């Protein structure tokens, strides 16, 4: 069966109604990782868009919102709340970061920032939980489905439990709850034998479910001025953390025009879990695209170019350059609206501490840069079509996970799957060590003149979307591919 045949069958088979239609659409989504569009602001019936996230359950929840008729913004909001449950190592109600929104209908290309804001004047202050308010702002401006619907699935996952994914299981290896003091968080992350949960174990978070229920029932404002706000302040105090009630009340995300650079008639935007690193990543990507020389560089030259900014050098932690603590996701809908977000907890699992009785993981107000994630969108603001999107994570290694697939595809011309799968290499902060993936060829390794080569299983993880003709528009040159390194999921329906 040729790729895309199931989707074409869905469009022409009159039996694609009711339950039969649901089954076939499910097959379309699970079996195919590509997509395309048709008329401006609307593509052919049966196409719902695509999603990519670092945790599979969250990706499926985003997909379901698109299938229900939701917009990319709706799916992004639902995905965020799901990640706060299924990937607490990197997302949570106190996460900080930024989102990009490309909207053809409103003809806007905007950025939504919800950066870490200290909750008090304490030296080691925690960050205010501003992400839920940011998601409400995203939905209010660009969403279509009722906001409470976007929290329901996350609440269910927290209350009834969800099996630990390979992504979360890998992140738990960094924490090892058996070796840390007893806290409400460490207890739920342990098995009965005291060891960390592993893939397939069920993670239940009843306190977090209660907080999500209040957000759904009473509105997001309850976390800032209502009963949930009081619970959060008292729960934080119970674990020795001070929350300024006025700062909590006034915590707001910020909308602004996206910081863009222009290349090849596209407007490119880059956001990150850390705004300083995002600006540097944007400048690096703009420079590399402008040079157009990535395909002419050998591995050694690429490594040198990537490490030209000392902020992008890799520091090995626990024997690995890929560090959890931040995540990113991407959604594109049938109308061409695209949302890409990058956010993080400042450290894997934040402070490994929750505000008592709320399930809200506390995040440090100062990010050390080790936990980094990026997201980018490239669109044409003349035709108002989205052409490309990418996400990357893995802490210090995230810059390599962003640049290698993007330039491997866009500059060198490799297919999207080939570009994402291609081997990566990146230098340490002191330039004395170069980390390489096992697939890097012998000849490429020989071109690297460095004191030490260290082989690692993976250098970050990424997701890449490309539609050459843009969405919305009729085109068959579209694809969205996830990275086998990350354990996440990318789903994009080809018509």
Blueprint of the fold:
Elements: H1 5-12, H2 18-31, E1 49-53, H3 56-67, H4 72-86, E2 96-103, E3 108-114, H5 131-142, H6 149-160, E4 162-163, H7 166-175, H8 184-188, E5 202-203, H9 206-218, H10 222-225, H11 227-238, H12 245-250, E6 254-257, E7 260-263, E8 266-272, H13 275-291, H14 299-306, E9 326-333, E10 338-344, E11 373-380, E12 385-393, H15 398-410, H16 416-421, E13 425-427, E14 433-436, H17 442-446, E15 452-455, E16 461-471, E17 478-482, E18 489-492
Parallel strand pairs: 14-15
Antiparallel strand pairs: 1-9, 1-18, 2-3, 2-10, 3-6, 4-5, 7-8, 8-11, 9-10, 11-12, 12-16, 13-14, 16-17
Helix pairs in contact: 3-4, 4-5, 4-6, 6-9
Q: What are its keywords?
A:
alpha+beta, 7-stranded antiparallel beta sheet, 17 helices, 35% helix
Describe the fold and architecture.
With 495 residues, the protein is of the alpha+beta class. The chain has one domain. It contains 17 helices and 18 strands. It has helices at residues 5-12, 18-31, 56-67, 72-86, 131-142, 149-160, 166-175, 184-188, 206-218, 222-225, 227-238, 245-250, 275-291, 299-306, 398-410, 416-421, 442-446; strands at residues 49-53, 96-103, 108-114, 162-163, 202-203, 254-257, 260-263, 266-272, 326-333, 338-344, 373-380, 385-393, 425-427, 433-436, 452-455, 461-471, 478-482, 489-492. The chain is globular.
- End-to-end CA span: 14 Å
Quote the average pLDDT.
87
Could you list the spans in which at least 5 consecutive residues all have pLDDT below 50? 1-44
Strand content: 15-25%
Which structural class best describes the helix and strand composition?
alpha+beta
- Note the main sheet: 7 strands, antiparallel
- Could you give the order of strands across the largest sheet? 6-3-2-10-9-1-18
Seen as an oligomer or otherwise, the chain set is single chain
Radius of gyration: 22 Å
Total helical elements? 17
β-strand number? 18
How would you sum up the global shape? globular
Helical fraction equals 25-40%
**Tally of domains:** 1
């Amino acid at each position: 069966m040729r790729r895309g045949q199931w989707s074409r069958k869905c469009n022409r088979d009159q039996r694609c109604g009711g339950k039969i239609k649901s089954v076939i659409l499910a097959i379309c989504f699970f079996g195919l990782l590509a997509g395309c569009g048709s008329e401006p602001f609307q593509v052919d019936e049966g196409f719902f868009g695509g999603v990519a996230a670092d945790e599979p359950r969250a990706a499926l929840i985003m997909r379901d919102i698109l299938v229900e008729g939701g917009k990319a913004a709706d799916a992004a909001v639902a995905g965020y709340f799901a990640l706060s449950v299924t990937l607490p190592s990197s997302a949570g109600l106190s996460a900080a970061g930024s989102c990009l929104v490309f909207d053809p209908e409103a003809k806007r290309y905007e950025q939504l920032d919800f950066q870490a804001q200290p909750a008090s004047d304490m030296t080691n202050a925690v960050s205010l939980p501003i992400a839920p308010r940011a998601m409400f702002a995203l939905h209010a401006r660009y969403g279509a489905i009722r906001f409470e619907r976007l929290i329901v699935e996350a609440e269910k996952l927290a209350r009834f439990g969800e099996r630990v994914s390979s992504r979360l299981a890998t992140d738990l290896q960094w924490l090892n709850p058996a070796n840390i003091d007893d806290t409400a968080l460490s207890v739920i992350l342990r098995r009965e034998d005291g060891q960390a949960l592993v893939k397939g174990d069920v993670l239940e978070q009843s306190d977090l479910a209660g907080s999500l229920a209040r957000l759904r029932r009473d509105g997001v404002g309850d976390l800032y001025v209502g009963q949930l706000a009081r619970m959060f302040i008292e729960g934080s105090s119970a674990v020795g953390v001070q929350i300024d009630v006025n700062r909590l009340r006034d915590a707001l995300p910020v909308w602004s025009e996206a910081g863009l650079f222009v290349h090849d008639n596209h407007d490119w935007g880059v956001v990150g879990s850390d705004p300083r690193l995002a600006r540097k990543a944007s400048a690096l990507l703009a420079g590399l695209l402008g040079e157009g020389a990535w395909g002419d560089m050998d591995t050694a030259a690429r490594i040198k170019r990537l490490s030209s900014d000392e902020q992008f050098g890799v520091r090995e932690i626990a024997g690995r350059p890929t560090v959890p603590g931040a995540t990113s996701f991407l959604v594109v809908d049938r109308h061409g609206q695209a949302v890409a977000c990058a956010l993080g907890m400042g450290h894997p699992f934040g402070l490994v501490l929750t505000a008592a009785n709320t399930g809200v993981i506390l995040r440090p107000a100062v990010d050390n840069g080790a936990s980094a994630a990026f997201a980018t969108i490239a669109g044409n603001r003349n035709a108002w079509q989205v052409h490309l999107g990418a996400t990357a994570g893995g802490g210090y290694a995230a810059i390599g996970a962003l640049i290698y697939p993007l330039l491997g595809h866009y500059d060198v011309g490799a297919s999207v799957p080939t570009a994402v799968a291609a081997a990566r290499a990146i230098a340490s902060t002191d330039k004395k060590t170069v980390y390489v993936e096992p697939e890097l060829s012998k000849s490429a390794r020989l071109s690297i003149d460095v004191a030490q080569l260290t082989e690692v299983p993976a250098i970050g993880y990424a997701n890449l979307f490309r539609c050459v003709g843009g969405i919305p528009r009729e085109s068959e040159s579209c694809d969205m591919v996830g990275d086998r390194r990350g354990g996440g999921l990318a789903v994009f329906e080809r018509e």
